Amino acid sequence: MEAVLEQVEQLPALLAVSRSALVRDWDALTLDRALEWGRYFQHLHDRFRTRPRLREALGRRLRRGQPSPLLGFPHLGRCPQLLGLALLENRALPPAACRRLIHSLLQPAGAEAGPEPRSLALLARRKAASRLLALPGGPPRAPEEMGPQPRTEAQLLLSRLREEAREAEPAGEAAGRLRWLSGVLEELPQPRVFEVVAAALLLRPGSDAEQAGDGGRDGKSVDGNQASATGDEGVAGLLLSWLLGNLERFSAFCLFLPGSLLASLAGHYSQFSRPYLDLLTGWGSHLLYDPLQGRWVKSCLDKAELSWEELRERFTCLCQGSALLRGQTQDALKLLKARDGDFTVCGLSVWTDLLVEVEEYLRKEAKCQRMNPKAT
Fold first, then answer.
1. CA nearest neighbour of 250 among 276, 212, 211, 227
2. Helices 308-319 and 323-339, packing angle to 10 deg
3. Residues 6+ apart with CB under 8 A from 189
4. Which of 113-122, 179-188, 237-246, 259-268 is predicted with the least confidence, judged by mean pLDDT?
């Protein structure tokens, strides 16, 4: 029994290695040995779960010398999935070992015991499937350009949030669901989590993004979509609460994603458009006019702020949206221009110059539409 206890004591080290850069030297055979250890620990769990004294002994040995959070006896039963998920998140894992891992997760050797391991195994297989869909590239330039990985993960997240909404107790359900969502999203690295949240907010029933992704495969009627609208509005509200609840997180979100995608979010959600305009206002206030260069420059180069060109692009994207969003953007710029002295000469107020640029863009757009009415 002492030999078994010594083996169990190595589980934290195995999980730590699976999250480290040491896996860059793993080949398919090394990966197989690690997964075999995971199945062995699961076997120990199944063997001793009905024997309280041995369970307690294994749990004590497992917790020996561990940093927080502690592993416990139940983690032995979930060891193959915990190990698989840790390795899936580790970009140091070589391609050959990663392919072997995905294959093992998508085609497990046998059925897991108990509802909780089955749930975790399903999560591991979904994560493996999303890795198969991963494509290289930077952030999407438009909603329809979102890659398959963030779209897949967003659909899984929405599905789980809808399940939480159906199962939650009325008392305190919003706070509990927000805590659950925060825990899930904080497990994803930045900036990937921003793409997933943006995709989830745009993949709502009836949106262009979801129609393009689903193609009506469920065959749901309009009434069916309308019946689920209330629940999905609650899900979107939960995602927006998480996003807007931390200014640093919201700023990073808006810095990473392109203006076209942020404008789409602003057009769909009034809760998003006002904070986004406020954020752009704050960034614009840090620009100073350099008369030697004849242009607006950042006041502090070490700050993560937008340049003049980037700020102009963000406001222009907002004016490419709906008439309501275009009007809100123009009204915001006019109010800022008035507060800044209502100058009409360029180079005195960043808001004057932005308003001139935006109105010039709108005039050109209107002229193009008059010359080519079929394009509208």
1. 276
2. 140
3. 89
4. 113-122
Which residue has tokens 């915990």?
Answer: 82
Chain segment 249-302, per-residue pLDDT in tens? 999 999 989 999 999 999 999 999 999 999 999 999 989 999 888 899 887 766
pLDDT tens string 297-341: 887 766 657 899 999 999 999 998 889 999 999 999 999 999 999
Q: Which two tokens stand for residue 245?
A: 């609840």
Closest CA relative to residue 310, chosen from 348, 357, 352: 357
Say what the pTM is. Answer: 0.59
Instruction: Give the per-residue SS3 of the chain.
Output: CHHHHHHHCCHHHHHHHHCCHHHHHCCHHHHHHHHHHHHHHHHHHHHHCCCHHHHHHHHHHHHCCCCCCCCCHHHHHCHHHHHHHHHHCCCCCCHHHHHHHHHHHHCCCCCCCCHHHHHHHHHHHHHHHHHHCCCCCCCCCCHHHCCHHHHHHHHHHHHHHHHHHHHCCCCCHHHHHHHHHHHHHCCCCCCHHHHHHHHHHHCCCCCHHHHHHHCCCCCCCHHHHHHHHHHHHHHHHHHHHHHHCCHHHHHHHHHHCCHHHHHHHHHHCHHHHHHHHHHHHHHHCCEEEECCCCEEEECCCCCCCCCHHHHHHHHHHHHCCCHHHHHHHHHHHHHHHHHCCCCCCCCCCHHHHHHHHHHHHHHHHHHHHHHCHHHC
**Identity at 66, one-letter amino acid code:** Q
The pLDDT of residue 166 is above 80? no
Nearest one of 297, 320, 319, 299 to 309, comparing CA atoms: 297
